[in-house]
Write a sequence for this structure.
């Protein structure tokens, strides 16, 4: 009984993000996100980037971006696991240190603070859903969503 009540309270306390907000997230490149950070701040977007992790590092990058800020701290919304398949949860948790992985993530960019280890990052991408994790270099380009014709 106590366990059931605890689970119910945990479920009710999690922020409710409508499923269509995630599925309808605008697909942009990681470079677009960095180049237009203030435009996309706090908005749900889908990006593809390289994820790298190491001791005291969890960051996104893309070698094709010509920016003075090459890395973005990666954070996870407290309910990201409930929106992400078991396979993707397992894959992101098992990314090896110092090995970049191609990822497709849905989330929101946060700016205006210092993020990550010792506040070294001016941006944080907060993950709401992990859609894909693959070894670096094995992805095809992101699909462009067709606009609905109503």
């Amino acid at each position: 009984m106590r366990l059931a009540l605890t689970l119910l309270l945990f479920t009710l306390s999690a922020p409710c993000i409508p499923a269509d907000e995630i599925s309808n997230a605008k697909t942009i490149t990681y470079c677009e996100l960095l180049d237009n950070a203030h435009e996309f701040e706090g908005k749900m977007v889908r990006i593809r980037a390289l994820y790298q992790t190491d001791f005291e590092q969890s960051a996104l990058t893309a070698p094709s971006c010509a920016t003075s800020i090459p890395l973005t701290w990666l954070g996870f919304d407290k309910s990201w696991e409930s929106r992400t398949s078991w396979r993707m949860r397992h894959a992101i948790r098992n990314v090896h240190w110092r090995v970049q992985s191609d990822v497709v993530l849905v989330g929101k960019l946060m700016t205006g603070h210092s993020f990550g280890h010792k506040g070294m990052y001016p941006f944080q991408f907060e993950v709401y859903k992990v859609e894909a994790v693959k070894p670096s270099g094995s992805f095809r380009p992101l699909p462009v969503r067709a606009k609905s014709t109503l």
In short: Strands lie at 26-27, 44-54, 57-61, 72-76, 101-110, 124-135. Residues 3-14, 146-150 have pLDDT under 50 and may be disordered. Helices lie at 2-13, 19-23, 30-35, 37-40, 80-83, 86-93.
